[in-house]
Amino acid sequence: MPALVRTIALCATLAAPGTQQRGTRCSCDRPCPETDAGATVMLAPVEPEHDPGTRPAGDVEGTEPRPRRGRLRLVVTLAAVLAGPLLAEVWLRHMIFRASEPGDEVRDARRYADPSSDDDYYKLQHVLADPSSRRPIPIFDPIMGWLGDVIEPGTYTHRNEASLAERRPVLMYGASYARCVARTACFQQILEESELADRYAMLNYAIGNAGFDQMVLMLQHSIDHYAGRNPVVVIGAVLDTDFDRCMVSFRGWPKPHFSLTDDGGVRWDGPVIEGADAFIEQHPIGIRSYLWSSLVHGEWLPRSWRDTLSGRDEKQALKKELVSGLVTMLQGELEGRDLDHFFVLFSSAYAADPEAPVTWQEEFVTGLFDERGVPYILVRKLLIEQAAKDGRDTDDYYFHEGIAENHLTEEGNRIAFEAVRRGLDGNFDGGSSEP
């Protein structure tokens, strides 16, 4: 046994770098040099080192080694490339829909869709919200989507019509800026307090959360009731939000939608589905990859890349076509009845800042109105003028918290009412010089 141990040790020594005899290696079929104990170890010849310029013995010309390891690496690499995003997608969906709570950042719908253009933003917002926090639809209407509490469903007459008496009606259409928030005096009250109340009375048809398309529909379905009284029509729209809303068919609740026609006009797509859940069941969220959407709509990529990947320019072009078609439709309704009309164009708190760049919506809408002869007054200009007189910021005329956030305060409404006054006097910022 000791001799065997010494033999193994000798083989290990000879096999170690620097100790093995050149051209030999330990084996069991050739005798090794004698050990100090007389044990014999077998050596086998080792293939001699070959010149780099010669082909090793046994290497047949014209054959290649089988690239098993290379293929395995390729397969593993491809699997990793494919499995990585797939696992990330599975994990992200788990975090969004199962492992997070309402209000968590991962549930912010802005990370996956554009609120100014995409139904999916509002669908996802609805699905991820705490059911107890979802606002019930005010008054469902298959044409308008929803109504305010002063509008009679079906006939679309105004419940305050008796307040007109013998005065000339001023019919105000719009969304939340025109409707005002509940705790502020609104335009109909401000008019009643003014010297204009001897001649005019306002019926406010504005509907919170509405888009420009809904304003046009509401006018279409209510104007004939008052056409014999020679009303003045005022459309109060927020430049940087209300025109974008023509793109979507869901904003918390299902809403009406128009599509383009081959001749450049627009066509109403038909009655609105009742109920958010019913709408989403028929028109599910269309996001295929939340991981990809988070790249496109998040902050990971440069803005120019995100704009390209999200199709921003194409969406903007479609918005312009829809708004242009709706303006044509609106002009037909008003000019066909020979009714005086003008727009009061609001701006959000950000866009009203005199240091803020002019939005593409303002450039496009005012340019379109100038081209078409549609009169308008810019509330932003009035706010800037008043802020300069008061030594204040335009931001001071907006709420900054709660449900009224980013809406005009009562002081802001009173400044904006000057746009109504100027419009009734025929003093416009653009579109026309005639009352």
Which structural traits does this protein have?
disordered N terminus; five-stranded parallel β-sheet; Rossmann fold; two-stranded antiparallel ribbon; 14 helices; 39% helix; alpha/beta
Structural notes for this entry:
There is one protein chain. This protein has 14 helices and eleven strands. By secondary structure, the protein is of the alpha/beta class. Among the domains are: 2-45, no CATH class; 139-279 and 311-424, Rossmann fold (3-Layer(aba) Sandwich). It has a five-stranded parallel β-sheet, with helices on both faces. Strands 1-2 form a two-stranded antiparallel sheet. Strands 3-4 form a two-stranded antiparallel ribbon. Helix 6 (212-222) runs parallel beside helix 10 (312-336) and helix 13 crosses helix 14 (410-424). It is elongated, with a radius of gyration of 38 Å. The protein starts with a helix and ends in an 11-residue tail after the last helix. 33% of the residues are buried.
